[in-house]
């Protein structure tokens, strides 16, 4: 039976392989255990559950992070992950735009600007 860390890392390798090392590097000198917690709880315990696929989970996460409005780095990371698991730029934009009705226009505009940065880095602009 795989342990929680290994199970979480397997999900991260699918969703956000590009940023795995960055998670640990950024926390190494201040809170190294926090990186392990991130892998073991959300990715092992939540993302691995049956009932929703990774594509849907990433769109939900984008909506939540957009609504929170204070998690730009995490939002960009999950926009990247959403692309990695098969979401289109249009689906991501629509998920963020929907938040304008529930979290307000400032949150949605900030979310769109985060998406624009990620899409630009990946050569995915303009969105069609």
Automatic annotation (TrEMBL):
InterPro entries given in the database record: 4CMD/NDH-1_regulator (IPR052512), AhpD-like (IPR029032), CMD-like (IPR003779)
Annotated protein name in UniProt: Carboxymuconolactone decarboxylase family protein
Pfam families, per database record: CMD
Family annotation (Gene3D superfamilies): AhpD-like
SUPFAM superfamilies the UniProt entry points to: AhpD-like
GO molecular function, one term: peroxiredoxin activity
Domain Carboxymuconolactone decarboxylase-like per the UniProt entry, residue ranges: 32-117
């Amino acid at each position: 039976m795989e342990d929680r860390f290994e199970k979480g890392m397997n999900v991260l390798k699918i969703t956000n392989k590009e940023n795995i090392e960055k998670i640990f590097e950024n926390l190494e000198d201040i809170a190294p255990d926090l990186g392990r917690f991130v892998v073991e709880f959300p990715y092992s315990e939540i993302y691995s559950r049956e009932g929703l696929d990774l594509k849907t989970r990433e769109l939900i996460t984008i909506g939540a992070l957009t609504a929170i409005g204070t998690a730009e780095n995490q939002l960009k990371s999950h926009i990247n992950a959403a692309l990695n698991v098969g979401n289109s730029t249009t689906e991501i934009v629509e998920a963020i735009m929907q938040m304008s009705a529930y979290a307000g226009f400032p949150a949605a505009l900030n979310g769109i600007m985060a998406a624009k940065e990620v899409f630009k880095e990946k050569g995915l602009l303009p969105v069609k």
